[in-house]
Amino acid sequence: MALTKDTRLPLNDGNTIPILGLGTYASPDVPKSTGEEATKVAIELGYRHIDCAYIYGNEVQIGSAIRAKIADGTVKREDIFYTGKLWPTFFSPDLVRKGLEKSLSDVGLEYLDLFIMHWPFSLKHEGAEKPANSDKPFAYDDVDFCSTWEALEACKDAGLVKSIGVSNFNRRQLERLLNKQGLKYKPVCNQVECHIYLGQSKLQAYCKSKDIILVAYSVLGSHRDKDWVDLSLPVLLEDPILGEVAAKYNRTPAEVAMRFVLQKGIVVLAKSFSTARLKQNLGVFDFELKPEDMKTLESLDKNLHYGPFKEMKQHPEYPFDDEY
């Protein structure tokens, strides 16, 4: 199918998700106002899918940008697809709705289009919220994500969110959720790291067999935030073979890296706060990679996680020890 910036993929609950989204995570040294301005520009350029999260600490600003663009008539609320994420400190069933209401209040919207479990494990409130805190480590909790899911289903029934999904789940964890007794709604998506060095083909095939969409973050090989990423890893956009394919199409390596993931039928989150890059990213809809070039790029898969989130390895539900 020909892809455009307006292409939406059907979700298993009858809703649809725009195939290209704006990622809004920024490292702490980036002023929150930068994300706010970039979100306004993105909406003006035609982005309709905005991906954010409680832990990013900028839902107030991103929400303000969305509401400003609704107020000035650029978009209607129903044109925007907003994703929020439930942080593991809210996984206890009695806290799930509070976590969602916190995001609703910060963003200033009456409902979210998609709300996903950020990880497949829970954290206690008294530990660190973010991994960069060496004085105060994570305090793991043992809330079963299946009980968290039941509370999310209730939030969907209450009309606070249109669709519910997961993030960073492996096959085994998805299977456990799907086989849960009394499951009312399947997750519509699994948001995972995915790029030419981490193709996620097996996970995608499994998700497809269960009618679950894959949503890709770090499609350009991550923002190389030292708190999360091993800076000795190769820079994806400097890959010589990717460079050769990009030259063949007279495109940038970033455009080809994004197009590769889109052509696999995966939703792409493109993170940029630069107006020029936001415009350039829409160029992914102006060309199509030939099957042989898709194959060439597929051969670059190294099963490489830029974000292994090693701080979380102690948790029995750490997802990346499994093959997929």
Helix and strand arrangement:
Elements: E1 8-10, E2 16-18, E3 20-23, H1 32-45, E4 49-51, H2 59-71, E5 81-86, H3 93-107, E6 112-117, H4 145-157, E7 161-167, H5 171-178, E8 189-193, H6 201-209, E9 213-217, H7 240-248, H8 253-263, E10 267-271, H9 275-281, H10 291-298
Parallel strand pairs: 3-4, 3-10, 4-5, 5-6, 6-7, 7-8, 8-9, 9-10
Antiparallel strand pairs: 1-2
Helix pairs in contact: 1-2, 2-3, 3-4, 7-8
Radius of gyration: 19 Å
Helix and strand sequence: EEEHEHEHEHEHEHEHHEHH
Structural class by SSE content = alpha/beta
Q: Helicity, in percent? A: 25-40%
Q: In CATH terms, what is the architecture?
A: Alpha-Beta Barrel
CATH class: Alpha Beta
* Biggest sheet details: 8 strands, parallel, barrel
| Global geometry | globular
Total number of distinct structural domains? 1
What is the CATH fold-level name? Answer: TIM Barrel
The number of helices is: 10
Distance between the termini: 27 Å
CATH homologous superfamily heading: NADP-dependent oxidoreductase domain
Q: Could you tell me the strand content as a percent range?
A: 5-15%
Low-pLDDT sequence parts? none
Sequence of strands across the biggest β-sheet: 3-4-5-6-7-8-9-10
Instruction: Output mean pLDDT.
Output: 94
The strand count comes to: 10
Report on this structure.
InterPro entries: AKR, AKR1C, Aldo/ket_reductase_CS, NAD(P)_OxRdtase_dom_sf, NADP_OxRdtase_dom. Keywords: Acetylation, Eye lens protein. By secondary structure, the chain is an alpha/beta fold. It has one domain (16-311): Alpha-Beta Barrel (TIM Barrel), CATH 3.20.20. Helices cover 33% and strands 15% of the residues. It contains ten helices and ten strands. The protein has helices at residues 32-45, 59-71, 93-107, 145-157, 171-178, 201-209, 240-248, 253-263, 275-281, 291-298, and strands at 8-10, 16-18, 20-23, 49-51, 81-86, 112-117, 161-167, 189-193, 213-217, 267-271. The strands form two sheets. The chain has an eight-stranded parallel β-barrel, surrounded by four helices. Strand 6, helix 4 (145-157) and strand 7 (161-167) form a beta-alpha-beta unit. Helix 1 runs parallel beside helix 2, helix 2 crosses helix 3 (93-107) and helix 3 (93-107) packs across helix 4. The chain is globular and about 55 Å long.
